[in-house]
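A further point concerns the way the authors explain their paired sequence and structure data. Each protein is reduced to its one-letter sequence and a matching series of backbone shape codes. An entry of this sort, consisting of the sequence and the corresponding backbone structure tokens, reads as follows:
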Amino acid sequence: MQFGRAFAGTALLLAVSGCAAASPPASSSIGAAASSSASASASSTPAEQAAGSWTATGTMIEARSHYTATLLAGGKVLVTGGNSSSGDLLRSAELYDPGTGSWTVTGSMIEARGSHTATRLPDGTVLVAGGDGSSGLLASAELYDPVSGTWTATAGMIEARFYHTATRLPDGKVLVAGGVAAGIGEEIPPALASAELYDPTTGTWTATDNMVEGRSAHTATLLPDGSVLAAGGHGTAGSALLESAELYDPGSGSWSATDGMIDGRLAHTATLLPDGTVLVAGGVSLSFEIGALASAELYDPVSGTWTATASMPEARSGSATPLPSAHTATLLLDGTVLVAGGYTGEGGALASAELYDPRSGSWTTTASMIEARGGYTATLLLDGRVLVAGESGAPGSAELYDPGSGS
């Protein structure tokens, strides 16, 4: 199976071959017009490097891409599915133990899949849903029990999809929104506006209100008031990248438009900060002439508006095959955000990393990763370190970032 997208007749192409599909993590009317001048005026040039260091840790048992990584309640990290080095879809799963720095095999999924979502539920089980399967896109879902290390089938989604987002709501339900449901073989598959809810108490899915605008490769962020902010991504109208953003209200089960981002983008990151604002950084730009973005902006849920903040020292995420997201952004225990890896506008993988300080609104460089990588996973461990694993030049390798140690 091959899946390609040509955007606006430009050279930018998302191509997924060998049944592979790009991995999402955990995604109105058009808002404010893109403003490169606003982003440029907030650019940052760090004078010194922040503390922090990377060390190699155990290599995954199976090299994989387009997989998920989920922190379990006990502190281990569950990695599921994806594509092997040869492009074959995987059923296998493995566990990383931060105490020993090693990986062990756990039960395999019922169905091989990549580009799926994985969400930890209140009882500690993990819900895996959708993705790319051996015979097409999947609606199926299954549950991982960390106590027994086994998987059981649960009800399938109403609509098969990938490039979607999955967000656990305060009541324990999981909101799945957007993505791509059809169009394998089409040049520009349309994005979905549909959304649905998984109820872990009944093990069933129910439809909820459609999004204001169909979108895929977007971000979805749970806000402090329990609503969900969906921003950016690829739209339904041809090759459009989106500036727009919208809010899901679990109380009413409805979506409403909110202010649009300053820069339209996909394959970006969105991070909830301690003060309740959302930091969006990097990604592929609305103007394909720019490619990877260095710009960053903040969403204030109180005012419902976006403001520019300092740009990253290095543009990241755009590539010939950008993954949502190719770089990662991880909120550290001290409230700063670690952004690492991704791709340059020319498609080369990055090893560089930087820290955003919400108090000063500025970025500082930190130690670079051992391996340049994009399309990988980053997981905050219980002890404050960050585990990154997979993709780019060393798809089975893993390393740890320690924010407290010198570089």
